[in-house]
Design brief:
With 337 residues, the protein is of the alpha/beta class. The protein folds into 2 domains: 32 residues; 216 residues, Double Stranded RNA Binding Domain. It is 42% helix and 25% strand. The strands form 2 sheets. Strands 1, 3, 4, 5, 6 and 7 form a 6-stranded mixed beta sheet that branches. Strands 2-8-9 form a 3-stranded mixed beta sheet, with no helix packed on it. Strand 8 and strand 9 form a beta hairpin. Helix 3 packs parallel to helix 7.
Length: 337
C-alpha cells in the first residue's frame, strides 16, 4: 500500500505479482524432462547391446570368414621338401586291405569345422560304396588322431603296419565360410528386427578329395575330388546356427559328388590295369596269403594251384609216346634176333 498525503516513498518497493500453477511446476518439469532423456539413452544402449551390434562403424558391410582345411601335400611333406621326380612302381597285392582315414586339420585352422562324428559318418558312406569291389578284401576306417602326430610317409607307413593294410585312402577337405551383413541389418537396432529381419548372409565353399597312396613306394595310385557351394540369408539370432548347418551340408554334398567322381576314376583305372596301361604292378595272393606270380602294368597273375596243374598236364603228355617208343624198340630187337 502507498501512503497518501505528503509522504513520498523514497525506497524501492517490490510489488508482488500474481503466481500461477505452471510457474510453480516449471522447475519440476525440467527435472522430469532430464530424467526422460536419460531413460531414452539407456534404452538405446540396451537395444544396441541386446542386438549384438555395438560396433556400428562398419555397418552395413560387416563381414568375417573362417577357413578349415587338411592338405594332402602338407601331410606327406610336412617340412616343405619337394616330392620326388619319379616314384618307384607301386605293387598292389589283391585283394586289397584298404585303410580309410581323414587327414588331420591344418595347424591354426578355425574351430568348429568337421567334427569326429561327422567324419565317421562320411567315412562309412565311402566304405559302403567301395567295399563290394572284387579286388577289395576289406576297408578299415582309421581315426584321424592316429595320423595327427605321425606326419609324412614314415608316419603313414607306421599306421599301415599297425592296421595291416596294403594301401591308404586319405580324405582331405578345404572349406571357406564368408559371413557379412546386408542393408537389412540396420534393423538389428531394434530387438524385434534381430528376430525377424534376415540381414545376415553366409556363403560356403567346400572341396573334398580322396587319394589312394602306397606308403611303401611313396607314390600316389589314384585320386578324385569334388567341390560344393551354398549360401543363405538368416536373422541375427539364427546366424550362427544356420551357418553351421550350411557348412555341414557342404561337406555332405561335396562327399557325395566326390564318391561319384572316384567311382568313375576307379572304373577307368581298372580298365587301364587290364590293358596294361596302369603304372602299377598287380600281385595276387591266395587264401594262405602267399603271393603268386606277378605281372607288370596290371597283367593277370596265376596262383600256385594253377601253375601246378599246368605242370602236371605238361608232364603227362609225353608218357604215351615214351611207352610206344619202348614197345617199338622191343619189337625190332625180336625181329633181328
Amino acid at each position: 500500500m502507498i501512503p497518501d498525503g505528503r509522504f513520498i516513498a523514497t525506497f524501492p518497493v517490490k510489488v508482488a505479482q500474481e503466481t500461477t500453477l505452471a510457474d510453480i511446476d516449471a522447475p519440476f518439469s525440467n527435472v522430469n524432462g532430464r530424467c526422460e532423456m536419460v531413460r531414452w539413452w539407456w534404452c538405446v544402449l540396451l537395444v544396441v547391446l541386446l542386438s549384438g551390434c555395438a560396433n556400428l562403424g562398419c555397418w552395413p558391410g560387416c563381414g568375417a570368414h573362417t577357413h578349415n582345411s587338411s592338405s594332402l601335400v602338407e601331410f606327406l611333406y610336412p617340412h616343405g621338401e619337394a616330392p620326388p621326380v619319379q616314384n618307384s612302381l607301386p605293387q598292389l597285392r589283391i585283394p586289397l586291405r584298404v585303410g580309410l582315414a581323414f587327414l588331420p586339420s591344418a595347424e591354426g585352422a578355425a574351430t568348429g569345422g568337421l567334427d569326429a562324428a561327422h567324419q565317421e559318418a562320411l567315412l562309412e558312406r565311402i566304405r559302403q560304396r567301395f567295399s563290394s569291389r572284387p579286388f577289395v578284401a576289406e576297408i578299415v576306417t582309421i581315426p584321424d588322431y592316429y595320423l595327427r602326430g605321425h606326419k609324412g610317409f614314415d608316419g603313414l607307413e607306421g599306421v599301415q603296419r599297425l592296421y595291416g593294410v596294403d594301401v591308404m585312402a586319405l580324405v582331405s577337405y578345404d572349406q571357406v565360410v564368408h559371413s557379412d551383413e546386408s542393408n537389412w541389418s540396420l534393423g538389428y537396432l531394434t530387438i524385434v528386427g534381430a528376430y525377424v529381419l534376415k540381414g545376415s548372409r553366409h556363403d560356403v565353399s567346400t572341396l573334398v578329395d580322396l587319394a589312394v597312396v602306397d606308403p611303401v613306394s611313396r607314390s600316389l595310385v589314384l585320386r578324385a575330388g569334388a567341390p560344393s557351394t551354398g549360401h543363405g540369408n538368416t536373422t541375427l539370432i539364427d546366424a550362427d546356427r544356420e551357418t553351421r548347418v550350411e557348412a555341414a551340408s557342404g561337406y555332405d554334398a561335396a562327399t557325395t559328388r566326390m564318391i561319384d567322381n572316384f567311382d568313375i576314376a576307379l572304373t577307368r583305372f581298372e580298365a587301364d590295369v587290364r590293358s596294361g596301361k596302369a603304372a602299377v604292378q598287380v600281385v595276387r595272393k591266395n587264401g594262405a596269403g602267399r603271393p603268386g606270380s606277378s605281372g607288370a602294368g596290371g597283367g593277370g597273375a596265376l596262383s600256385w594251384p594253377w601253375i601246378l596243374a599246368l605242370l602236371g598236364l605238361v608232364a603227362a603228355r609225353p608218357v604215351p609216346r615214351l611207352i610206344s617208343n619202348f614197345r617199338r624198340r622191343g619189337r625190332l630187337k625180336g625181329m633181328m634176333s
